[in-house]
Design a protein that fits this description.
Blueprint: E1 3-8, E2 19-23, E3 29-32, E4 34-35, H1 38-47, E5 64-65
Antiparallel strand pairs: 1-2, 2-3, 4-5
Length: 88
């Protein structure tokens, strides 16, 4: 697997750093961030997504909380705004 570093939360402590990478083959984002607390998970389950989909979280998935200031590191398709993938 070949990952490309996209960015790290510049506001976080040295050992608590939400980080984003991109798989250079699939384009998938790999995100390290804080686990959502139980209140956030319950709120997400209350809102749901689309009819017919369970709001349970499978064992192989989790809910994370990504700091808003890190959205700038998420690549966008060409022509859909500025892509800030240069890191910090």
């Amino acid at each position: 697997m070949s990952l490309r570093f996209l960015g790290i939360d510049p506001n976080s402590q040295t050992d608590e750093c939400p980080t984003i990478w991109q798989d250079e083959v699939t384009g998938d984002l790999i995100i390290q961030s804080w686990k959502a607390d139980e209140a956030t998970i319950r709120a997400a389950q209350d809102v749901g997504s689309i009819p017919g989909h369970s709001t349970d979280i499978p064992q192989h998935e989790t809910v994370i909380r990504l700091p808003m200031n890190m959205l700038r590191f998420i690549p966008r398709p060409e022509g859909e705004g500025e892509s800030a993938t240069a890191g910090t």
